[in-house]
Amino acid sequence: MEKIEGNLLIIGGAEDKEKGCTILKEFVKLAEEGREAKIVIMPTAAEKSDSVGRMYSDIFKDLGIRDVEVLKIDSRADGFSKVAQRTIEEATGIFFTGGDQLKITSLLGGTPVDFSLQKAYKKGVVIAGTSAGAAAMSATMIIGGNGDSTPQMDILNMAPGMGLVNQVVIDQHFAQRGRLGRLISAVAQNPYILGIGIDEDTAILVDAQANLKVIGSQTVTIVDGFNSTYTNVSELKPKQALAITDMVVHILPHGYRFDLKNRKPITD
Amino acid sequence: MEKIEGNLLIIGGAEDKEKGCTILKEFVKLAEEGREAKIVIMPTAAEKSDSVGRMYSDIFKDLGIRDVEVLKIDSRADGFSKVAQRTIEEATGIFFTGGDQLKITSLLGGTPVDFSLQKAYKKGVVIAGTSAGAAAMSATMIIGGNGDSTPQMDILNMAPGMGLVNQVVIDQHFAQRGRLGRLISAVAQNPYILGIGIDEDTAILVDAQANLKVIGSQTVTIVDGFNSTYTNVSELKPKQALAITDMVVHILPHGYRFDLKNRKPITD
């Protein structure tokens, strides 16, 4: 596990926006940390980026942040804008909304704004993403595949992600969309990768030591194939079902922590 | 694991009835085994027991069985019928259809027909059950609980089952209805119990040595909490999410085998 520098808040989608706002308040707290916060919302993934941007802007203002900006990236050209780069560089918290994770990577990947993001991340600026914004954070991301399906290679489509967190693959809306099959399929392809399934209204906060903490009302499912003794992945024909034995699975609710480097729950 | 005597064919529901009929043919083969087969269909769980009984009757006749009988048990009184007892005692294969597993246990449990079933089972007569008929086979059965939900105690309802196979709990329509959460919740309550999630058009054949073999187009998920190092089950308040660490999970497709006594895949 590479050392990671920043704080990542990776949200399984459908986070509470009206009642306790536990997860969004955590983001605001991390963006503040004793200074005047500047939150930048990236609705890049969203189809209706204006209304989604406005919605989150209103929420963060309600939560007491004065300086909230929506940064629209609707084309690769936008990713070359000097103004946009400066906006990212001045942010103390960056929030990716849901939508389509391929919009994030295809529009931003390799642009100067992408480099500004990586720089901000290394400085320790908190970067949050919900739903598609969560999926995009890993080096390889899941972009499609049926939920409620048995593990099969056909049900899974993957693509290069933003690479903010490596050696994991993240799935979101996890229990709610029955995505165990596709997460196991991803892990079986390379059991060195940890599969992290995040439920709705639930998030993981990943710190610079690669420890994660669960926040929110549901659970996080961690699938570890590291000690798996058998899989048939490399021999599978299309439509054939997957075999994999001896995976280790952890179910972690709010407050529980997990050490990504050593692949185990933190129980102190 | 208690010694089990018979052959159980436990089907995750929606088994193929039109193309290869892999699972239903396996049942027919086991009911035949070198003798004239007599198949008894138990549509006890079904709301429309007449039409369901007729459907399976037609299928088994198409598969070459001449002696097929539908045994209707619509009240507890029916479970005391001498004719019904004799029908079960003469069967070489007994098939429980889907429907509501509580209908099976509440109508049959403790009746003379139930005892006839147990006797047939000990003689080695194959007993098959699909969907509700599968769920009812374990000593404790799942009767309700949302699919596509995070593991929580609230999502699970259990009841005493038929007890044909012990120390396991069976869930069906497993991947298709996203039932990992509820199966894990069941296992967490007593990690000595093995959780067996059977997908649609997939079955396990459990033999007298308590070895199972997977048959069908999808997979079987086995959840083993035996070596789990931590769970919060006993402290949970309603609506709180479950924690459980270090479960072992196996995904097994067609042809794979598992040793229920020793809790491991058979890899010879």
The oligomeric state is homodimer
Strand content of chain A: 25-35%
CATH class division of chain A: Alpha Beta
Order of helices and strands of chain A: EHEHEHEHHEHEEEHEEEEEEEE
CATH 2nd-level architecture of chain A: 3-Layer(aba) Sandwich
**Domain tally of chain A:** 1
Question: Which descriptors would you attach to this protein?
Answer:
homodimer, 268 residues, alpha/beta, Rossmann fold, 9-stranded mixed beta sheet, 7 helices, 16 strands, globular, carboxypeptidase (chains A, B), Peptidase_S51 (chains A, B), hydrolase (chains A, B), protease (chains A, B)
Describe the structure.
The structure is a homodimer of 268-residue chains. In chain A, the strands form 3 sheets. In chain A, strands 3-2-4-5-1-10-11-15-16 form a 9-stranded mixed β-sheet, with helices on both faces. A 5-stranded mixed β-sheet of chain A has the order 8-9-12-14-13, with helices on one face. In chain A, strands 6-7 form a two-stranded antiparallel ribbon. Chain A starts with 6 loop residues before the first strand and ends with a strand. Chain A is α/β, with parallel strands linked by helices and 268 residues long. Chain A is 25% helix and 28% strand. The radius of gyration of chain A is 18 Å and the shape is globular. In chain A, helix 7 links the parallel strand 8 (168-171) and strand 9. In chain A, helix 3 (82-90) packs parallel to helix 5. Chain A has a single domain, classed as Rossmann fold. The first copy, chain A, has helices spanning 22-32, 49-62, 82-90, 101-108, 112-123, 132-135, 180-189; strands spanning 7-11, 38-42, 67-70, 93-96, 126-130, 140-144, 157-160, 168-171, 194-198, 202-206, 211-216, 219-224, 230-231, 244-253, 257-259, 264-266.
